[in-house]
Amino acid sequence: MISGFSEAAALRVVAARREHAFDSVEALARRAGLNRRDLKLLASAGALRSLSDHRRLAHWEIAGVERATPVLAGCPIDEPLPPLAPPGEAEELVADYASLGFTLGRHPLALLRARLARMRLATAAELRGLPHGRPARAAGIVVGRQRPDTASGVIFVTLEDETGSVNVIVWRDLADRQRRELLGSRLMGVYGTLEREGEVVHLIAKRLVDHSELLGALETSSRDFLSGRTLPRLPPLGFRPGTT
């Protein structure tokens, strides 16, 4: 799952690990035949946490890994680690998304929830508890946009937060008026009306708001399937550093 990490290197790691566990970054590099680039990719993805505690120490240890001469092969180097402070949770999230496209930690919107609550933006779980026809507003990371050929210009947007997903319906007239927010937002706020059919819940959009600046340096992506000619794809917007 690590962007740029080769399958061959991954297979060597797995084969060496079957023999016995790694006890240091140096042992990992030597036994799996990893080069400096491989190690940097593993460190950036947080994959060396069991050997180096956190990303910053992992990068420090990588800097000290050198190919040993035949005389010193197999001899570990005992060097004290510097007292580097671990990265904060927001920094970890940014690094996870950059390397993996997701995180095994808390969802990014969990860090922003207090701010979103002050903006009266509901979670996906809260929307599921609302009755049909209730005005509602929510926000989430855009994970997909879809406009089927047979949908008369309607665009379906899927938002994600720490409690689940929100299915948004954007009618054609709103899509035409707010094309920039619809296609450029990575963190999208939706003001609309809740529509419920049994267990299926949709948020019918009345207004879209681009809150992408709240993500700061976090890079996200969405799976978009937009057919037709009236709404060509836009280039990504520039984002100002936000506070997470």
What does this structure look like?
With 244 residues, this protein is of the alpha/beta class. 34% of the residues lie in helices and 22% in strands. It contains ten helices and six strands, in the order ααααααααβββααβββ. The protein has helices at residues 7-19, 25-32, 36-44, 49-52, 55-63, 89-100, 108-118, 124-128, 172-177, 179-184; strands at 135-147, 155-161, 164-170, 187-197, 200-210, 223-226. A five-stranded mixed beta barrel has the order 1-2-3-5-4. The longest helix is centred in the first third of the chain and has 13 residues, at 7-19. Residues 229-244 have low confidence and may be disordered.
How is this fold's topology laid out?
Layout lengths: L6 H13 L5 H8 L3 H9 L4 H4 L2 H9 L25 H12 L7 H11 L5 H5 L6 E13 L7 E7 L2 E7 L1 H6 L1 H6 L2 E11 L2 E11 L12 E4 L18
Parallel strand pairs: 1-6, 3-5
Antiparallel strand pairs: 1-2, 1-4, 2-3, 4-5
Helix pairs in contact: 3-5
